[in-house]
């Protein structure tokens, strides 16, 4: 009886464990999904560039150097200048910032909203579920760009309105995933066990449902982020997104069309970076979806539950550009 | 099967009703004054703007607006364009086939290419070809469709001094010219879906090829090619159908930008122009049209599912 | 020995302690499916004395698991009465039911399914303590370690996740969790059915030891006759929602009365102590 007491001094400290666990999880992820790891690196670069934009960009993206119009890449302007004499490199870096800002805001808000709605709908079921889901279906029935245009014409172009419009468009995707997972989790034995212990609904939702959703939602989030970047650039390409002169890759694309012969870099640079950013988020989302890796899904599940194959495809298929 | 069809149709109707309500509720968010101001920006006088506002019923409640629109729609009257004064329905009728032709071709090309690549990847599984196809697929998924269109267009012009014809001619009138004009948009629209379909076909086929069912077929002595195409492919059909349904939304959305870029007079170009002109009746009609198109396609795909998989018809829970 | 499954006589068998800890009278549970009515439980009565084990044996579909859930009121019965320590479980308020949950717990069949894969062992076993606000912080951790040690695990397992354990160990964690609030009754719903045979014996012996140490009552549900017989003082045989025969374990198997029981017993080989009928060997 006293043996264990003697050995036991302090309960093992959790925080240090979490950190080392996270590191080893990351290492496992890199080994299992090399492409995903590459994507992660690219994304980190993208995020850093966006966050540090004011310090990274050699020039003010809005400043017009009237004497250096449509110049080729040079020492002073590493990626050349556009038709108003603005440094393409600076505009590109700040464009990353715009995309990131809108992407984070939109994905973040829709994730919270969509997950909440999906969990409520899936857990409480019946009438609530039917009503909510029909409404979501209706919103999803309208193709993304069309819905975006529709909202844009109502609200007018601005960064805030772009975020609102995009949020409306992508919330149903999070709702769908959250609801599907909630329906599954609701029937799991450990939820029944928690109820048998006397746990109330809030506790079950917070400690059992939400943590087990996290993996799928996060994976979807990555894919959605890619879609948001595309949608934002499409909107600014069409002239109804973030208003000029806000630097945005989409806007740069539309500006560059006219000068493609004289200054192809105005189109090429944003096109390349846009594709690269989207590519990275897609790769990351894929890497998470095709394995149940700890980096994305927490502790490795017992394999019965991997989010592979069909599940992953359903996740991928549920996003919309 | 009949019961299932009716249920799907009923569901579609409910969704469309909700879409219409949604559209009009959102419309309500436009403050009346803002409408007048916006119209004035596009050159309409103050009195005319007020008249249009009243005519469009923007001051009325959502239900009144909705009701009168529906009443008109059933009779074929989708409102009158603020901009041109023409009945919206007429503007529509000309453009719908254009967009449908474009969209259909894009989906078909995307599906064919996607399935083709998927088969190649599945059959050469594990080799560099397979890996290449998969990376290629994701890369293609990532370049937004309008960027693909833009790049191909501008660089064809740059390097080969070739641009597609600007004046639109339908496939019935001048097939060659039509093909030239839609070639790039079709590629742009189709390749986005191609990637997903390739991946789905690959994984479905790999599953099927490895399954006991196929091994039995092999054992019976069927030729390899027969095995691959007939059996494994059939089992992939459902998965591909799902993807096609979801690709549809992207393709429909893509038509908006690409029609504008390539001067194709379809509904995409219509809605874009209407947005710029603040032509609300047209925007409303277009939005509902696109939603309707989507819902109809989804129902068709669901019915195809039911044909392929009898379990769905009988309503037995699958999961 | 009574072989009559009708209501009143259930308590007659208990006999040893005057007031049973747990009683169920004429439990009925009907499930309405799309176009049919499934009578999962159709008039079941059980009495569990303090410190004793009542076994419930039957094939799949007999309704045993439904009875388990009804007993804990995880499902509401269509008809019938349930009382725990004299308290009418069905008439009790939500608050009272919640309080009663401290005193009756359940161990499930799937050791991994019953544990939240995202929860560490410490949190999983400590959850009942948190729910009933019985201990916090350091005190809770100490109590969890105590529970883990009681089932043969230890403090080093606190921060692990369920998947890091074997089936038998995971089931022990489930048992530790069930013990957390100091219950008097534990329902074992096929608690060893998913385990390897060698591990089954260990867990069964653990359960027996706990019963002796803590004075627990068990409602032990299984489909394996040997296991049920080993664990139970009284055995109820269930078929299609009804109890067809009940009695003292050894006696029941030695001389089954009901044809169904006879068939069940006949189908099992190693049943030591059974009088050979001429077709089977002991």
What topology does this entry show?
The complex is a heterotrimer of chains A (321), B (319) and C (282).
Chain A: H1 2-7, H2 14-32, H3 34-51, H4 53-56, H5 88-124, H6 126-141, H7 144-155, H8 159-186, H9 189-197, H10 201-238, H11 249-256, H12 265-290, H13 294-297, H14 309-317
Helix pairs in contact in A: 2-3, 3-5, 3-12, 5-6, 5-8, 5-10, 5-12, 6-8, 7-8, 8-10, 9-10, 10-11, 10-12, 11-12, 12-14
Chain B: H1 2-27, H2 32-41, H3 46-56, H4 62-74, H5 88-123, H6 128-142, H7 145-160, H8 175-210, H9 212-219, H10 224-261, H11 267-276, H12 280-308, H13 310-313
Chain C: H1 9-14, E1 22-32, E2 37-48, E3 53-57, H2 64-71, E4 79-84, E5 87-88, H3 94-100, E6 104-107, H4 121-131, H5 137-150, H6 167-179, E7 185-189, H7 197-214, E8 217-222, H8 225-231, E9 234-239, E10 242-248, H9 249-254, H10 259-267
Parallel strand pairs in C: 3-8, 3-9, 6-7, 7-8
Antiparallel strand pairs in C: 1-2, 1-4, 4-5, 9-10
Radius of gyration of chain C: 19 Å
The count of β-strands of chain C is: 10
Tell me which CATH architecture of the largest domain in chain C applies here: 3-Layer(aba) Sandwich
CATH class of the largest domain in chain C, named Alpha Beta
Structural class of chain C: alpha/beta
* CATH homologous superfamily identity of the largest domain in chain C: P-loop containing nucleotide triphosphate hydrolases
Distance between the termini of chain C: 23 Å
How many helices of chain C? The count is: 10
Q: What do the pLDDT scores of chain B average to?
A: 76
Largest sheet strand order of chain C? 6-7-8-3-9-10
Q: Tell me the β content of chain C.
A: 15-25%
Count of structural domains of chain C: 2
Notes on the protein architecture:
The complex is a heterotrimer of chains A (about 325), B (about 325) and C (about 280). Chain A is built from 14 helices and no strands. With about 325 residues, chain A is mainly alpha-helical. The model of chain A is unreliable at about 1-15 and about 290-320 (pLDDT under 50). Chain B is mostly helical and about 325 residues long. The longest helix of chain B has about 40 residues, at about 225-260. The mean pLDDT of chain B is about 75. By secondary structure, chain C is an alpha/beta fold. Chain C has a six-stranded mixed sheet with strand order 6-7-8-3-9-10, sandwiched between helices. A four-stranded antiparallel sheet of chain C has the order 2-1-4-5. In chain C, strand 4 (about 80-85) and strand 5 form a beta hairpin. The relative contact order of chain C is 0.17. The model of chain C is unreliable at about 1-15 and about 275-280 (pLDDT under 50). The chains are: A mainly alpha (about 325), B mainly alpha (about 325), C alpha/beta (about 280). Chains A and C meet through helix 9 and helix 10 of A and helix 4 and helix 5 of C.
């Amino acid at each position: 009886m006293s043996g264990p007491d003697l050995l036991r001094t302090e309960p093992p400290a959790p925080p240090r464990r979490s950190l080392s666990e996270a590191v080893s999880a990351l290492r496992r992820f890199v080994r299992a999904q090399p492409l995903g790891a590459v994507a992660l690196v690219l994304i980190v670069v993208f995020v850093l560039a966006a966050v540090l934009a004011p310090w990274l960009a050699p020039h003010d993206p809005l400043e017009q150097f009237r004497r250096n119009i449509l110049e080729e890449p040079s020492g002073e302007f590493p990626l050349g200048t556009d038709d108003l004499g603005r440094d393409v490199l600076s505009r590109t870096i700040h464009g990353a910032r715009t995309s990131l800002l809108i992407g984070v805001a939109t994905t973040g808000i829709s994730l919270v909203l969509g997950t909440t709605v999906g969990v409520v709908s899936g857990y409480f079921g019946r009438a609530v579920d039917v009503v909510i889901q029909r409404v979501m279906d209706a919103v999803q029935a309208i193709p993304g760009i069309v819905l975006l245009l529709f909202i844009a014409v109502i609200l007018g172009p601005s960064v805030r309105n772009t975020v609102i419009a995009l949020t409306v468009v992508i919330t149903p995707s999070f709702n769908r995933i959250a609801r599907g997972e909630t329906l599954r989790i609701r029937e799991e034995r450990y939820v029944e066990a928690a109820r048998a212990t006397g746990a109330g609904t809030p506790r079950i939702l917070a400690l059992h449902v939400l943590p087990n959703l996290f993996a799928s939602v996060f994976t979807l989030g990555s894919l959605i982020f890619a879609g948001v970047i595309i949608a934002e650039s499409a909107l600014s390409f069409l002239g109804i997104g973030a208003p000029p002169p806000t630097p945005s890759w989409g806007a740069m694309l539309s500006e560059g069309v006219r000068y493609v012969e004289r200054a192809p870099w105005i189109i090429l640079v944003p096109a390349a970076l846009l594709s690269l950013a989207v590519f990275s988020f897609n790769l990351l989302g894929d890497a998470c979806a095709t394995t149940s890796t700890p980096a994305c899904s927490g502790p490795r599940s017992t394999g019965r539950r991997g989010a592979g194959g069909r599940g992953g495809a359903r996740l991928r298929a549920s996003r919309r550009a | 099967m009949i019961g299932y069809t009716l249920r799907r149709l009923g569901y579609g109707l409910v969704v469309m009703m909700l879409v219409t309500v949604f559209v009009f509720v959102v419309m309500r968010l436009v403050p009346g004054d803002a409408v007048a101001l916006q119209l004035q920006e596009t050159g309409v006088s103050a009195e005319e703007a007020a008249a249009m506002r009243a005519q469009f019923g923007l001051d009325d409640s959502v239900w009144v607006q909705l009701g009168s629109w529906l009443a008109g729609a059933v009779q074929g009257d989708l409102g009158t364009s603020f901009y041109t004064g023409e009945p919206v329905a007429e503007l529509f009728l000309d453009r719908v086939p254009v967009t449908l032709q474009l969209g259909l071709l894009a989906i078909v090309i995307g599906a064919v290419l996607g399935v083709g690549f998927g088969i190649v990847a599945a059959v050469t599984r594990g080799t560099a070809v397979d890996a290449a196809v998969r990376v290629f697929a994701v890369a293609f998924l990532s370049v937004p469709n309008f960027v693909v269109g833009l790049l191909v267009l501008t660089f064809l012009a740059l390097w080969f001094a070739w641009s597609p014809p600007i004046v639109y001619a339908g496939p019935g009138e001048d097939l060659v010219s039509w093909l030239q004009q839609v070639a790039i948009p079709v590629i742009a629209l189709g390749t986005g879906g191609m990637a997903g379909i390739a991946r789905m076909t690959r994984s479905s086929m790999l599953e099927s090829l490895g399954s006991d069912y196929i091994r039995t077929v092999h054992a019976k002595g069927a030729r390899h090619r027969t095995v691959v195409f007939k059996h494994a492919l059939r089992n992939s059909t459902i998965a591909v159908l799902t993807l096609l349904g979801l690709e549809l939304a992207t393709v429909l959305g893509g038509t908006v930008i690409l029609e504008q870029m390539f001067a194709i007079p379809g509904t995409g170009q219509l809605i874009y122009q209407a947005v710029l002109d603040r032509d609300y009746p047209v925007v409303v009609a277009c939005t509902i049209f696109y939603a309707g198109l989507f819902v109809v396609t989804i129902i068709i795909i669901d019915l195809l599912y039911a044909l392929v998989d009898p379990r769905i018809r009988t309503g037995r829970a699958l999961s | 020995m009574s072989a009559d499954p009708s209501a009143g006589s259930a308590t007659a068998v208990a006999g040893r302690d005057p007031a049973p800890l747990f009683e169920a009278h004429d439990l009925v549970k009907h499930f309405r499916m799309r176009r049919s009515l499934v009578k999962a439980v159709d008039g079941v009565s059980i009495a569990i004395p303090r410190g004793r084990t009542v076994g419930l044996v039957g094939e799949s579909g007999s309704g045993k698991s439904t009875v388990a859930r009804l007993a804990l009121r995880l499902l509401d019965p269509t008809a019938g009465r349930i009382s725990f320590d004299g308290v009418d479980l069905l008439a009790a308020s939500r608050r009272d039911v919640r309080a009663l949950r401290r005193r009756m717990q359940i161990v499930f069949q799937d050791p991994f399914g019953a544990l939240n894969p995202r929860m560490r062992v410490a949190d999983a076993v400590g959850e009942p303590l948190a729910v009933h606000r019985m201990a916090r912080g350091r005190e809770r951790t100490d109590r969890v370690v105590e529970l883990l040690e009681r089932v043969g695990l230890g403090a080093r397992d606190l921060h692990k996740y369920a998947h890091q354990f074997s089936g038998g160990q995971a089931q022990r964690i489930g048992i530790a969790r069930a013990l957390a609030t100091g219950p008097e009754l534990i329902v074992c719903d096929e608690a060893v059915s998913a385990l390897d045979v060698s591990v089954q014996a260990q867990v069964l012996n653990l359960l027996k030891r706990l019963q002796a140490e803590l004075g627990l009552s068990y409602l032990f549900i299984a489909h394996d006759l040997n296991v049920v017989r080993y664990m139970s003082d009284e055995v109820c045989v269930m078929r299609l929602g009804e109890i067809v025969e009940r009695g003292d374990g050894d006696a029941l198997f030695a001389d089954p009365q009901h044809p169904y029981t006879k068939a069940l017993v006949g189908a099992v080989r190693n049943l030591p102590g059974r009088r050979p009928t001429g077709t089977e060997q002991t």
